[in-house]
Amino acid sequence: MRNSFLTIVFLFVAVCTANAQGIVGKWKTIDDSTGKEKSIVEIYEKDGKYYGKVAKLLNPSKPNPKCEKCEGDEKGAPIEGLVIIKGLQKKGEEYTGGKITDPESGKQYKCTVKLNGKDKLDVRGYVGISLMGRTQTWVKAN
Known about the structure:
Elements: H1 2-20, E1 25-30, E2 37-46, E3 49-57, E4 83-91, E5 94-101, E6 108-115, E7 120-126, E8 133-140
């Protein structure tokens, strides 16, 4: 009986730890030029793939900004609520194979995401090969 209880506790802790170390959750983005917090992106899992939507803009320059330079169905869509990360798949320690959209330019890039410690996320957007891009570090939001 005691062994069963300890096994259940161990499994519970292991599952909680694994979930806590994943990318699912809310992350603060940081503006590259100003160094100020820009938005909160919520990353979620759906059908084995990972997506990220802009949950909240922090200090937008104008109220209710839209993605004017985006293409297709996203053109003119409000940036808050916009799914900017699409189709990432977990491969080892990285999440890759997806796309990320820059709402300011409307451009879409290939994307790779990797945890950097327990409260930072390295998000890399690139064209072609991963060497041709840039990385932003996002911080876990409370």
